[in-house]
UniProtKB/TrEMBL annotation:
The lineage of its organism: Eukaryota, Metazoa, Chordata, Craniata, Vertebrata. Residues 3-175 form the PRELI/MSF1 domain. One of its GO terms (biological process) is negative regulation of RIG-I signaling pathway. PANTHER family: SEC14 RELATED PROTEIN, SEC14-LIKE PROTEIN 1. One of its GO terms (cellular component) is cytosol. Residues 493-646 form the GOLD domain. It comes from the Eukaryota. Pfam families: CRAL_TRIO, CRAL_TRIO_N, PRELI. This is SEC14 like lipid binding 1.
Amino acid sequence: MVQKYQSPVRVYKHPFELVMAAYERRFPTCHLIPMFVASDVVDEENSEDGSTQKIERRCALDVDAPRLLKRIAGVDYVYFSQKNTLNRKERTLHIESHNETFSNRVIIHETCCYSVHPENEDWTCFEQTASLDIKSFFGFESTVEKIAMKQYASSIKKGKEIIEFYLKELEDEGITQVPRWTPSSLPLPLPSALQADSLTDILAGTPEDKLDADYIKRYLGDLTPLQESCLIRLRKWLQETHKGKIPKDEHILRFLRARDFNMDKAREILCQSLTWRKQHQVDYLLETWTSPQVLQDYYTGGWHHHDRDGRPLYILRLGQMDTKGLVRALGEESLLRHVLSINEEGLRRCEENTKVFGRPISCWTCLVDLEGLNMRHLWRPGVKALLRIIEVVEANYPETLGRLLILRAPRVFPVLWTLVSPFIDENTRKKFLIYAGNDYQGPGGLVDYIDKEIIPDFLGGECMCEVPEGGLVPKSMYRTAEELENEDVRLWTETIYQSASVFKGAPHEVLIEIIDASSVITWDFDMCKGDVVFNIYHSKRAPQPPRKEALGAHGITSPGGNNVQLIDKSWTLGQDYSMVESPLTCKEGESVQGSHITRWPGFYILQWKFYNMAACSATNLPRVDDVLATLQVSSHKCKVMYYTEVLGSEDFRLVTFCLFVCLCACVTSTHCHPC
């Protein structure tokens, strides 16, 4: 497996020429890097005007590896080739290095670049990328990979310190400025007066599509170089595949942390969550959701200041809550939506506290008071609703709970904990602190995590808490199962998106009838699983409605209730129907938007077809026999979530004009005017 690294942008508050003078001092050896034992210049080339210099070095590294591994490999040093291209006119330095030792077994490639800051010509940017591919190494591939990644991460961190050290050394020698290159100048460092900026600093202000080191430290926290790399690479992937809005950096980081910075696993659950948010319009929940009055009166939870670490504090008096009454009066979906609004508010408060306290705050603390908890809280539908809520929150809000303080746990609590704990992530369970009786009042209790001044009055503190006291929900507010079911459908399935399954040999097709030519068909879909080919066809005659009994007659159920095939196998492409857009290959995780202006009235078919090389080269549509042969293969299933709409030509021109006006307003003004 190829390991990759991408650094954030490091910005040094020093001119490019001065940073280059500091960089050159690390050769031929550097006492700050003990493993860097030697470097020899094997080739040097200078342009006639002195603006460009190319240097190739051969560097020897004494890798910190077990002696047994070195003896098996038969080497003491690992040699690298480094090529530096310095362009004094453009003020850039490009560095490329690769390993010479074991190059047939291990491939290491690194590129670095020093350049002038795009917004301040007196500052210098630094970026770094690298890849490691271990093909074989005497059966020690895993060991070598761990050693290589550990030492590379250490050298990345050391590189920043080295530049700072030599800049300080230059400053001590009175060299704080090096003249820029001119056709008649020589690039020799000359002393000058001490500048106001002393030590190198990492500063924000790089281009918007890149992350710089100071931004990461200020808003996201201390990350290792490899963790920074995972964040940057996943963010870049989202920018390339999700054409619309992508999540905030702190939200991406939560999913990486939830999967121990395994980028593939984090990407999978993040894409699933983004699809879920889009399908249920969760991004607009705080603006569109208003809690029913029964929740405002009887839901015993609310936000209450912050803990000692600056995390937002949420208090839940679970023991005083009538869970059965709330479920009977509201149903699961209303409770779920209310809990989601709490989580969305928690994300907002974390951002706010990050700005207020001047340090990264990405999670909140939850205080749960169990006084009053008894067997009525173990009502089966209530526990079922709780488990479902936990499942949804765990999947879509990972690493948002910093600490959970459970107070006054009664004897019945172990029973409830046995039911609930298997559904809670192990990392989350480690954040639980449980106090029985009044133990929370002693040493190691509540005052260790919450300032005494904000301890709620019902816990013996002096701070008034506005969390409702709860009580029993009047039975007059209960609703029948039928009423709740209808309400649940109205509340939670209120989405403009539809889901469909695509199988190998069984595409999903959507029929759109066009009456007026020059109408516009628009689409927006997300690939939740697998890869597909998206096609648009036109036919003058309507396809026959799909018949479910075709597969059922063989005793095999249809691939999925949300898989529809419209194009008859007897139809011939070019005669019965024609392709009106070039096929579009869509990869898993991608978000695709587009439109097609119709030229003729008739029937248009949007098709999502399973993607593979063999299928792409075929011209005939797959037969039902092919479908039956592949139903048992789970890897042959794709999932797509889509939305389509038809706009009249006049409506489309109006929408286009409004978007154009908005774009012009955004360009010419600091405020966007609503259309």
